[in-house]
Design goal:
By secondary structure, this protein is α+β, with helices and mostly antiparallel strands. The chain folds into 2 domains: 41-160, no CATH class; 172-276, no CATH class. Helices cover 26% and strands 34% of the residues. The chain contains 4 helices and 18 strands. It has helices spanning 3-57, 86-91, 100-105, 162-165, and strands at residues 64-69, 77-81, 111-114, 120-124, 129-130, 137-141, 146-152, 157-160, 166-168, 177-180, 186-190, 196-197, 201-206, 219-222, 227-237, 250-253, 256-264, 269-276. The strands form 4 sheets. Strands 10, 11, 12, 15, 16, 17 and 18 form a 7-stranded antiparallel beta sheet that branches. Strands 1-7-8-5 form a 4-stranded mixed beta sheet. A 4-stranded antiparallel beta sheet has the order 4-3-2-6. It starts with a helix and ends with a strand. The relative contact order is 0.11. The mean pLDDT is 88.
Length: 278
């Protein structure tokens, strides 16, 4: 084969390889774009469904409705901010310390879908929705499915929080179950088969500070004296500006210290073993 033919053949191979790489990159970008479009459509569908239910219930005082929506799995949390207290929420640097991006948009939007590390995937304006208890917003952990309870309340719709941070004790825990604090920063995981004594229900409420200067990570676990036959796992999402080395090795519940069993510096979550509420 002549030298010129070899060079031409080599150039053909190079050009073919370049074209193949460009086609692969173009295909990847198209697929990425389609996935992003799908995510946006699912978020918009979840928002529109919630907006419809809120509007409907706002004219039906006293009616309670349990609803379920289906955001994309990339969304880890859904947060609703009380429409009447958004300025108070936005000005409270302490209560929103784990949600800096959400805090920046609170005055213009009050429904947020959050991804990994609580980054805002999408936000919307939702009228006539109220969250009556401190810290005047509610964050739900979601995994492709978001369930909550709404109630009509005189031209507005109230978020019913009992099913978020309370668990009714009717016997041994039938399957691993979690309850969450309203701010979405604590999860109490009750293990499958656990017997709970000295309690009709388990709940965790965020304690409202008496003043901004008195703010602290303070939660009210109830009832005092409840015990778990298998220790529950308490997962605490800590301030993103600190590391595991700066997190307390013990979680204080009243006068009792519960030992740390794991700390994840990447996702800023520390886990403790809890045998009783004291």
């Amino acid at each position: 084969m002549k030298k010129a033919q070899v060079i031409v053949q080599y150039l053909v191979y190079v050009i073919a390889l370049v074209v193949l790489v460009l086609l692969l990159l173009f295909g990847y970008q198209m697929l990425s774009g389609l996935e992003e479009d799908k995510t946006q459509i699912q978020l918009m569908q979840a928002y529109n469904s919630l907006k419809h239910d809120v509007t409907e219930l706002s004219t039906d005082y006293g009616t309670t409705k349990h609803v379920t929506y289906y955001p994309p799995k990339i969304a880890r949390k859904a947060c609703i901010i009380d429409v009447e207290n958004r300025e108070l929420v936005a000005s409270n640097e302490y209560s929103m310390k784990n949600y800096p991006q959400m805090r920046e948009q609170t005055l213009t939007h009050n429904l947020f879908f959050l991804g990994e590390r609580d980054t805002v995937l999408e936000s919307f304006e939702l009228e006539n929705i109220i969250v009556e208890e401190y810290p005047y917003y509610a964050c739900y952990f979601i995994d492709g499915q978001w369930s909550l309870t709404l109630e009509g309340a005189r031209r507005q719709t109230r978020v019913v929080l009992d099913d978020l941070y309370s668990y009714s004790v009717t016997g041994p825990v039938l399957s691993t179950t979690s309850i969450y604090t309203q701010d979405g920063l604590l999860e109490l995981e009750l293990q499958d088969g656990t017997s709970i004594t000295n309690a009709n229900a388990i709940s965790i409420a965020v304690v409202e500070p008496t003043s901004p200067s008195a703010a602290s990570e303070n939660y009210n676990f109830q009832p005092d004296g409840a015990t778990f036959s298998t220790p529950a796992i308490l997962k605490v999402q800590f301030n993103p500006t600190i590391t595991c080395a700066q997190v307390n090795a013990n979680f204080m519940m009243g006068s009792t210290a519960h030992s740390m069993i794991k700390c994840d510096d990447e996702f800023k979550i520390v886990s403790y073993s809890i045998s009783a509420i004291t």
